[in-house]
Backbone:
């Protein structure tokens, strides 16, 4: 398991479970810190000696080697004596720290703050909050050496910039009053940072405190002139002029009233106008939940929780048409083929079936089609015959009506029901292409993103990563335009998959998978997240012919039955592995069908189980031209053709 290293405060390390690792004395910590500063580059032993002592003592070189050996034992306590170290490596004249980019808090901090400048302000706030929480004190606390001083000063400047970057993002989203106290303290602590004064004045102005804003700007001008002898930056002077003129747009386009005020006034007007308990409120709630579900992790979780409650409330009104509109109005695009909450999905399907049965014969065909599309989407990953049937009916009605939005929703249901066997990536690619073209023509932004993600998955399955890259880039561009932060979860995992499929060594892909998993931690999609990282790493190892090494503490989530035989084989328990293999069920109808069959085939070959090998061969044959599992856009077990060749060879030996 990957260790974590902390330098944003005292230098510490934690094991994969988050427990502190004993690093012995200050010189041991100094060696580790100095290697962190080098960011994976080799630090010669002579440089380490010079950086650890002002006057090196006799035997300093041997002492450094002793420190390194002790650090290796601390960081990798389970490493066999003669096995090569993974993280603190010897290379040429010195040593290097080769850990994943997310294994060091300072590196994570820099990556998060850099990424925050490329996303929508709301997503930037989440990233910056996460980055700033990683600080436990001054960076490299306790070290006064010049190399530590330089790095500490650099990181401190980045921290101050991140504070100001976060404040600017809060102002952009209309949260001026919230940010004033923090900016006030920040400017007082760092009075020479003109950006701190500018943001504080801007926040005060947006919060309706024009006099205080002007007083802040005059105080900043006085400090700069009297104590430093310099004129304020033109941005400060321009802001003061704009406030005095009460300009409609202040400074860098951050104006008043902001989005928060517009929202508050609109919500208040709605509360005054629309009667409490009216059906209009229920329909408006579904529209709100639909928007909430695509704005980020917390929004998705809240929408999921409230959706069933809204359906129940609609059914209590006793109006089948209202219930149908409430259920069918939640046309949130779905890309992953396992529901985040299968029990809730089943409740939605049941409610949609009741609404369909209760509709009058002359009810709108569009309403029926939306209920059918809902059934198709929410029954994804199951073996129920109703899902494909509902998808076909919804698509037929939508095409007859010529309703683009309805057809896009219906095609989402059709996509979700194209996993009844392996090898259907070309069909899903055609669905994705139609979604992209249809949505682009009619301005259906979220479904255009869905189309690109569907094609990204399909082209990955076909090992066409040039096209996959184009669809990932298009999805990211649209996500920024329409403020869909969760899209980056899928494009980041795709880029990790691309490394896994194209790089000869697995190290880069493993690091990319771990970074992608860190982003997934806060995505609010348990149906995707559960067990995905260990599954990706297992598939990576199998594809590269590496031994399987996982302990019984690993949480495989829904993937357990298909990985259990290989895990037991890795623990040298062949009898238990054979028993587990005999109990492996037929994989569910989802994006991982080829990956699960390939893992089953791999275990069956090792255990010489010809019956399971024959079943796996039949199941995988239609996907002979695909990469196993790559249709998920997340992971791969290598070419299906290789697994088929291995099966044929093993079956030939068994006959």
Residues:
């Amino acid at each position: 398991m990957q260790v974590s290293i902390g330098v944003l405060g005292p230098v510490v390390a934690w094991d994969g479970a988050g427990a502190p690792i004993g690093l012995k004395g200050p010189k041991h910590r100094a060696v580790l810190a100095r290697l962190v500063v080098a960011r994976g580059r080799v630090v010669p032993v002579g440089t380490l000696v010079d950086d650890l002592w002002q006057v090196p003592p006799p035997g300093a070189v041997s002492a450094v080697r002793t420190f390194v050996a002790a650090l290796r034992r601390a960081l990798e306590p389970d490493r066999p004596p003669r096995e090569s170290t993974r993280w603190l490596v010897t290379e040429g004249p010195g040593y290097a720290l080769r850990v994943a980019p997310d294994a060091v808090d300072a590196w994570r901090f820099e990556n998060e703050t850099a990424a925050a400048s490329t996303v929508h302000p709301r997503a930037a706030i989440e990233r910056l909050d996460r980055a700033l929480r990683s600080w436990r004190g001054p960076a490299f606390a306790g070290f006064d050496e010049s190399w530590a001083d330089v790095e500490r000063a650099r990181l401190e400047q980045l921290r101050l910039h991140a504070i100001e970057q976060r404040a600017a993002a809060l102002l952009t989203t209309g949260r001026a009053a919230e940010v004033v106290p923090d900016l006030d303290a920040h400017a007082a602590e760092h009075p020479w940072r003109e950006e701190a004064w500018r943001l504080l004045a801007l926040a005060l102005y947006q919060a309706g405190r024009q006099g205080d804003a002007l007083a802040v700007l005059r105080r900043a001008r006085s400090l700069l002139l009297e104590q430093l002898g310099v004129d304020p930056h033109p941005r400060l002077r321009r802001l003061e002029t704009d406030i005095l003129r009460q300009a409609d747009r202040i400074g860098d386009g951050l104006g008043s009233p902001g989005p928060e005020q517009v929202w508050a006034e609109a919500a208040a007007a709605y509360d005054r106008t629309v009667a409490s308990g009216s059906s209009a409120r229920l329909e408006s709630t579904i529209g709100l939940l639909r928007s909430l579900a695509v704005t980020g992790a917390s929004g998705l979780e809240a929408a999921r929780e409230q959706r069933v409650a809204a359906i129940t409330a609609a059914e209590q009104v006793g109006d089948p048409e209202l219930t149908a509109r409430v259920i069918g109005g939640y046309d949130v695009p779905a890309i992953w083929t396992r529901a985040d909450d299968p029990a809730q999905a089943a409740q939605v399907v049941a409610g949609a079936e009741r609404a369909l049965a209760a509709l009058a014969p002359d009810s709108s065909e569009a309403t029926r089609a939306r209920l059918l599309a809902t059934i198709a989407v929410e029954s994804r990953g199951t073996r129920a015959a109703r899902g494909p049937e509902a998808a076909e009916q919804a698509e037929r009605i939508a095409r007859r009506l010529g309703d683009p939005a309805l057809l896009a929703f219906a095609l989402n249901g059709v996509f979700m029901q194209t996993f009844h066997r392996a090898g259907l990536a070309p069909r899903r690619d055609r669905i994705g292409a139609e979604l992209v073209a249809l949505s682009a023509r009619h301005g259906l932004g979220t479904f255009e993103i869905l189309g690109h993600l569907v094609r990204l998955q399909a082209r990955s399955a076909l090992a066409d990563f040039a096209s996959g890259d184009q669809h990932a880039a298009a999805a990211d561009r649209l996500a920024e335009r329409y403020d869909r932060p969760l899209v980056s979860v899928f494009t980041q995992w795709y880029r990790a998959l691309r490394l896994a499929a194209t790089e000869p060594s697995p190290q880069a892909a493993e690091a990319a998978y771990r970074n992608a998993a860190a982003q997934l931690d806060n995505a609010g999609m348990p149906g995707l997240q559960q067990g995905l990282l260990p599954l990706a790493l297992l598939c990576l190892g199998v594809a590269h012919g590496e031994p399987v090494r996982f302990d019984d503490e690993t949480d495989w989530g829904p993937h357990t039955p298909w990985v259990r035989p290989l895990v037991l084989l890795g623990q040298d328990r062949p009898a238990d592995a054979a028993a587990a293999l005999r109990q492996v069920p037929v994989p569910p109808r989802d994006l991982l069908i080829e990956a699960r069959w390939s893992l089953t085939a791999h275990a069956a070959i090792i255990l010489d189980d010809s019956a399971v090998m024959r079943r796996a061969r039949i199941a995988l044959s239609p996907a002979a031209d695909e990469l196993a599992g790559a249709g998920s856009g997340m992971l791969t077990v290598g070419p299906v053709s290789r697994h088929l060749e291995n099966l044929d060879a093993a079956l030939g030996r068994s006959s």
Q: What stands out?
A: The longest strand covers residues 88-91. Residues 510-654 form one domain. The radius of gyration is 29 Å.
